[in-house]
Every structure is written in C-alpha cells, then in structure tokens.
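Weekly puzzle thread! Below is a chain. First person to post its structure in token form gets bragging rights.
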Amino acid sequence: MSERVVTVVPEAGLHARPASRFVRTANEFDAEIEIAPIDGKPVNARSMLAVTGLGVERGEDVRLLAEGADAEAALDALEAVLSTPEESDGDSEDGGTDDAEDGNGAADESGTEGG
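Winning reply:
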C-alpha cells in the first residue's frame, strides 16, 4: 500500500466543493483509496459522507493511502486536489469576472434600489 502525507490547502478545508472534487477524483481510479487525519482512522475516499465527516480544516495534514493498479496515479491526483487553493471565495466564480463588471454599472438599473 502506498501512503502520502499532504497538507490541505483549500480555504474551506475538506468540506463542500473541495471534498466533492476530492471524491470525484478518487472515483476515477482503479485503486482502493483511503484518507485519514494524521492520528486518525482511515475512511473510504470515495464516500462524500465519510470524507466530509473527517472535519479536516485548511492547514491540517492528512494521510492518503492507496492500493491497486492506479495507486500512485491516484495519490498524485488527490495530492493535487488537496494542494490547490479554491479558485474563488464566491459561489459563482464561473462568470464572476464578467458579471462583476456588468453588475457595477447595471446594478442600479436592475432593481437594486433599496440595497
């Protein structure tokens, strides 16, 4: 079994969007994958409930364990997910840049009179 220690970088820790990305990534590989707090019991990395249930926060270290045909590739991909900051603090960054530009000029005309 391969093992790797990774520091969680996303601001939200291993909750919500980062956890969803982590679980989706884990499900792409032909390997048994687990994640655990440094001093904790490993859980199935393919389970959103198990992963979010760990309560891992930003800056905490976790152990990634993988066994199977894609073990090393899985660890590489999961380390990348945990080591990458979220691309936004807002809920809808996909069109946020264009939206913010339009929102500043068009907000008053859109009906946001009372704030």
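Puzzle host: Confirmed. Bonus trivia for everyone else. The longest helix spans residues 96-110.
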